[in-house]
Amino acid sequence: MSFWTGSSKIHELYTAACGLYVCWLSIRGVTVLLAWMPQGRTVIVHKVQEWTLMILKTLVVALLVAGVIPLLLGLLFELVIVAPLRVPLDQTPPLLPWQDWALGVLHAKIIAAITLMGPQWWLKTVIEQVYANGIRNIDLQFIIRKLAAPVISVLLLALCVPYVIAAGVVPAVGVTPEMEILMQRRIYPFLLMVVLLIGILSFQIRQFKRLYEHIKNDKYLVGQRLVNYERKSGRTSSVPPSNPVAE
């Protein structure tokens, strides 16, 4: 533990938990190898290659989904909510990656839970598909292309676009240094308010359109389906009598 943490003190509970996990993994690996030995060397090599590939895929997915995305989410939350409320304008807000990552993990879990409980849309479909596949049938290309890449792109745009505007466009206009600092510190919550306002307005416009269509259909649309309509048949209901056969 000191190799990873340095001189900082670690509680004995963490060392005991790590030791138990190492022992459990070692015993599990030995039992799996003993179960594979009667099947032959070829089967063991194939199983080892399969599990190694699955572990590598899982590590890549964990790095993206549990590492990069929570870090970007926590950093965005720090710049949008925490820093404007807690740090004055005359001080530089400290950015702590570990704390931002832990905060992002919490927010990512909350967002994932709300997404799964909400209506059907592309993010919910992708998360349900990833859960359905599981670790054994993990699809690295699908996760990167459908989940990691869009979410990381949106978070990077949310982080970079305000910074480019505050650090690149605003100084080119020729404002005072105080205004530059104010823009750099307040542009993230300002753009968040703008995005929320646009989302609320677009939602209300869609609702008014639906209400308008509903009122228009109720007032001017006479009917939407035919009732009491029976198709006439060209055949007669009575069967003509057959001619008597002469004897």
UniProtKB/TrEMBL annotation:
Keywords: Membrane, Transferase, Transmembrane, Transmembrane helix, Ubl conjugation pathway. One of its GO terms (biological process) is ERAD pathway. The keyword Cell division does not apply. This is RING-type E3 ubiquitin transferase. GO terms for molecular function: ubiquitin protein ligase activity. It holds the Pfam family MARCHF6_C. The chain crosses the membrane at residues 13-37, 58-81, 101-123, 143-166, 186-205. It is found in: Membrane. The keyword Membrane applies. Pathway: Protein modification; protein ubiquitination. Residues 43-216 form the E3 ubiquitin-protein ligase MARCHF6-like C-terminal domain. Its EC number is 2.3.2.27. It catalyses: S-ubiquitinyl-[E2 ubiquitin-conjugating enzyme]-L-cysteine + [acceptor protein]-L-lysine = [E2 ubiquitin-conjugating enzyme]-L-cysteine + N(6)-ubiquitinyl-[acceptor protein]-L-lysine. It is an enzyme of class 2 (transferase). Its main location: membrane. It is a multi-pass membrane protein. GO terms for cellular component: endoplasmic reticulum membrane.
